[in-house]
Amino acid sequence: MNTPKNPSLDAVSQSHAGKSLDALIHSKLAKMSGGMSPISLSLAYADWAMHLAASPERQLKLAQEAAKFSYQVFAASLSGKPHGAADAPTVVEKDGRFKDEGWNQWPFNTLKDSFKASEKWWGDATQVEGVSRHHQHMMSFFARQWMDALSPSNWAATNPEVLRKGQESMGQTWLKGFESYTRDMQAMRQARTDANPDTLAELDFEVGKQVAITPGKVVFRNHLIELIQYTPMTKTVFPEPLLIIPSCIMKYYILDLSPENSMVRYLVGKGHTVFIVSWRNPDASDRELGMQDYLQLGVVDAMAAVKTATGAERIHSLGYCLGGTFLSIIASALGRRAQLNKGAKGKAAMPHRRQEDHAAFDELPELASVTLLAAQTDFTEPGELGVFIDDDQLKTLREDMAEKGYLSGKQMAGSFQFLNSRDLIWSRNTRRYLLGQDEVGNDMMSWNADLTRLPERMHSEYLSSLFLNNALANGHYRVAGMGVALMDIKAPMLVVGTVRDHVSPWRSVYKIHLLTDTQTTFILAAGGHNAGIISEPGHANRSYQMAAADKGHDWTAPDEWVAKAPLFDGSWWEAMHAWLADRSGEQVPAKAIPAKQALCNAPGEYVMVRYAD
């Protein structure tokens, strides 16, 4: 007797097969376009091209600009005037590619001027009225990428420094560069054909021996984090411990590099009792870990563990990058809890909350301060990362993560490299392959090679809720049964942005002034997303601007703030320590970490987990 078919099961099977086919096609197409959605790229180009085609006035203006720039370059070439003369074309920026004196000599000055004029023209050409903001951003970004690739500094025959040094060395720099190129190509081929996909290259700086060596103990562990408490280095310490929440996109020891570059060691040496979260490097089994898990297990549990370890009722808190975003959410929830509990005690204040959420939040220590380092809370201006984020690109990303259960470290590293291709790809290739210069490794480069993953669900929720919908800044984000708004943060805040940050642009970070009314001190430091934060005292050419806004402050536009804020020489770490000390109690005798609390020595076990992808 034949068993009747179940139509609903057939429909489910067909739907699953169809979605698998869709995902396969999208994956193949994305690989052809460098991991980005070809549909998103095509829509951006079509939006720009059609609006430009329908704008003869804009076309005429661009044609006039092209003619003007061509004439200026030609005239400067004939007159022999150096770049920067009154009739030279407009220069977009000064950069290290053209610092060599040879670029001021013909014909290289003409090549440089022509390139700069083309770069300026394409920058103008991508600005067409009517094109959506996101598509215009994409067109502008990719125009810069192409121009960076075509720079005359990237090619031996058009780079005077390469030619001169090759002649002076009797060709040795060229030979050395070719040898470096050959070795790198062989290493790439070997990596592609290696029988063991989990083969890991050794790090230049070994974790626990050369970096992440500040003495301490792991005093708490759950599935997602290890909490490290550092051994006191001073006889007395401030009574309020400091909890640091680094980004889960990176290994925590960016803040504990070599001893001379370690923010952790610096703070411990100044009398702070420092705790830091070390995030677990997830695998496929963690695919269902979401944003709420990272907030609960990563921040709430860490705060509770600090209170348990020290007995402190008040703690300082510091979050870096995505860790700062996490911290701002929990700080908002704690502020909201405090307001609600003024009228009613405990669960009665919020009867809809689950008992476990109620217990976890109501037992946390008070925040004596909140410090955010290069951390976005408003995502309407996400900087260059916005190029990768729209509905279609997130769909492509979700399909890719669904196969593995995580976003690989290589994907993240590739994205960040793409964002700064001028320095990380083209300028590096020029130095290494054309000038024959050896790469001098350092602790930050080694840390950068220590890749981490993100779980599928968490990464998808993070991009959707924060980047696409800006839920936190709009007051729509919920945590532990509570709707939270940044306005609920009552603790004083120290917010740090960096001038050349492509990940968290400082003007975006500065928007915290629009979203809170607590006492806020803002620091604008020199450098980029990582190098501007790792700003150890004693380093030459360090500087920062700093100014404070009182509780209930008025709005000051970022450019106005820059024009007025005092400029200081040196490391902003010293200002951070002074700011924390002003908000701390009188120092008390330091205590050793009890042996019964120690699970293992720092840097712990989670930070040692590495994956080839």
Q: Mind sketching the topology for me?
A:
Layout: H1 7-32, H2 38-53, H3 56-79, H4 108-125, H5 133-150, H6 160-168, H7 172-193, E1 216-221, E2 225-230, E3 236-237, E4 242-245, H8 263-269, E5 274-279, H9 291-310, E6 314-320, H10 322-343, H11 355-362, E7 366-373, H12 391-404, E8 406-407, H13 409-419, H14 421-434, H15 443-448, E9 454-455, H16 456-468, E10 478-479, E11 482-483, E12 493-498, H17 506-510, H18 512-515, E13 520-525, E14 543-549, H19 558-564, E15 567-569, H20 572-582, E16 588-589, E17 600-601
The CATH topology of the largest domain, please?
A: Rossmann fold
| Overall radius of gyration | 27 Å
What would you say the CATH architecture of the largest domain is? 3-Layer(aba) Sandwich
The proportion of residues forming helix, as a percent range, comes to 40-55%
Give the helix/strand class.
alpha/beta
Number of helices: 20
The order of strands across the largest sheet is 15-14-13-12-7-6-4-5-2-1-17
- Gross morphology is globular
Total domain modules: 2
**CATH class annotation of the largest domain:** Alpha Beta
Describe this entry's structure for a reader.
This protein folds into two domains: 38-159, no CATH class; 216-386 and 452-608, Alpha/Beta hydrolase fold, catalytic domain (Rossmann fold, 3-Layer(aba) Sandwich), CATH 3.40.50.1820. Strands 15-14-13-12-7-6-4-5-2-1-17 form an eleven-stranded mixed β-sheet, sandwiched between helices. The protein has helices spanning 7-32, 38-53, 56-79, 108-125, 133-150, 160-168, 172-193, 263-269, 291-310, 322-343, 355-362, 391-404, 409-419, 421-434, 443-448, 456-468, 506-510, 512-515, 558-564, 572-582; strands at residues 216-221, 225-230, 236-237, 242-245, 274-279, 314-320, 366-373, 406-407, 454-455, 478-479, 482-483, 493-498, 520-525, 543-549, 567-569, 588-589, 600-601. The chain has 20 helices and 17 strands. 45% of the residues lie in helices and 12% in strands. The chain is globular and about 75 Å long. It is of the alpha/beta class and 613 residues long.
